[in-house]
Amino acid sequence: MQHINPNWEQLLAKLHTKLEEVKQGGGESRIAKEHKKGKLTARERIAYLIDKNSDFLEVGAFAADGMYEEEGGCPSAGVVAGIGHVSGRMCVVVANDATVKAGAWFPMTAKKSLRAQEIAMENHLPIIYLVDSAGVFLPMQDEIFPDREHFGRQFRNNSKMSAMGIVQVAAIMGSCVAGGAYLPIMSDEALIVDKTGSIFLAGSYLVKAAIGESVDNETLGGATTHCEISGVTDNKYDSDQDCLDAIRRIFATLGENAKAGFDRIAAKEPGVSADKLLEVFPLERVKPYDMLEVIAGLVDGGELDEYKKDYGKTLICGTARIEGWAVGIVANQRKVVKTAKGEMQMGGVIYSDSADKAARFIMNCNQRKIPLLFLQDVSGFMVGSKAEHGGIIKDGAKMVNTMANSVVPKFTIILGNSYGAGNYAMCGKAYDPRLIFSWPSAQMAVMSGASAAKTLLQIKVASLKKTGKEISEQEEKELFEEITNKYEEQLSPYYAAARLWVDGVIDPRETRRAISMGIEAANHAPITERFNVGVIQT
């Protein structure tokens, strides 16, 4: 990579190294074990299934990153998921990774699988399940089994998607045990691979313990049993490849659904090259920069038709195109700006005038049926007596209201800071963006690391003083460093991605592709809800 900030090179090297590690799943020995059984791995299955030379937009690659270390870790939460094309039809694919704890479900496995189903439901995309799982990871069953967003929710979603007319195709390509057996059988079509696929509510050991019957797993729930005796599965196939070919044939026959009708024309190259994009975005958090230069590297031809260009200048609003798709952009301006009244406003901060402008722009995009893209590098809303007297809470509430009630699809990219209520107003995870990704340069928290550490230190020192303990200047310094280090770890984009607060961490040069695929997916779901903001602060 030439002419790229060495710090960017370091961040991107870390990203790509982590991705390669994740793609190894349970490791080379586990992959070899699957191959010895005649099976493909989850990622090999997806690569074989999707159309050649087409993109696969992975979701949740870093799910569970750094979590469950006492259990040996759970790369990608033991499941691979994303959006791709099969026989020309865009769809969601979910594949259990049997190289990771035999595909057992951890708490984050459930969260990620539900996220994949949510993407299918929101965008009316057909979904393919490639099932190969030992079921719930029993030592953590209390964190996976009983709650609203736990394991059982997937079967509820199976039922809801069926009622919505969303096509679901499942392939049983390994173990499919207990409650997990319902997922493929609640799908429209259930395929099974002979000799390696099996499905039953209880395996042979449990059957023996429960009712005293001695039976092997193949007789109990193998492909021949379920295709010829029980009728539970539809057809059996000799290999993973044969089964995946059958799915491709099914998808080749799918009829066209109604579309949302978002506007698209022939794409243009962005106004700034991909590598130049990295140059114009500084990694120094306090350094001002012009967000318009970043936008030029994301949109077709670098062309942005700005809305209220000379008003509320700490937020940039305007329409543009990304890979031909019309899109409305709301972005934080990070350079210091001067208002017509002579007031200097800090970059990355939302003021009353910018919140007011953004609210109106969001309404216009809903009126014009244009998807919304939020580019976050936000420190929060302006504070202080002047801002409070000027009604910052009222104007901020108006922006949050219009954004939350938008019926056009929303997409969010976190470039740099994502702090406090700024995260909310700029369409954070809580506000249902269809997709939300971070750059490796992103940080997400209730406030910046420096501010939080100082605040937490004051609380800690005050608490110690209440108990009669005075601490020395050196002890206070050590305590500050300890608090800072812990907080900095939580600011990491990988910390957020591990918990699925974002759908992934992406190379900035992949941003256009991610947004374009997101809008293409959203275009499969006609907008049926009327835009209504209810009672709004004026």
Please characterize this protein's 3D structure.
The chain is an alpha/beta fold. 39% of the residues lie in helices and 18% in strands. The protein has 20 helices and 19 strands. Strands 8, 9, 10, 14, 16, 17, 18 and 19 form an 8-stranded mixed beta sheet that branches. It has a 7-stranded mixed beta sheet with strand order 1-2-3-4-5-6-7, with helices on both faces. A two-stranded antiparallel sheet has the order 11-12. α5 (153-164) links the parallel β4 (127-133) and β5. α4 (107-123) packs parallel to α5, α13 (352-368) packs parallel to α15 and α17 (449-466) packs across α18. The longest helix is centred in the C-terminal third of the chain and has 19 residues, at 473-491. The two termini are 50 Å apart. The relative contact order is 0.10. InterPro entries: AcCoA_carboxyl_beta, ClpP/crotonase-like_dom_sf, COA_CT_C, COA_CT_N, MCCB/AccD1-like. Residues 8-266 form the CoA carboxyltransferase N-terminal domain. Keywords: Membrane, Transmembrane, Transmembrane helix. It comes from Algoriphagus oliviformis.
Output the number of helix runs.
20
Mean pLDDT across every amino acid position:
93
User: What percent strand?
Assistant: 15-25%
Q: How large, in whole angstroms, is the Cα Rg?
A: 25 Å
Q: Characterize the biggest β-sheet.
A: 8 strands, mixed
Which stretches are low in confidence, meaning pLDDT under 50 for 5 or more residues running? Answer: none
Overall helicity = 25-40%
Shape from CA axes? globular
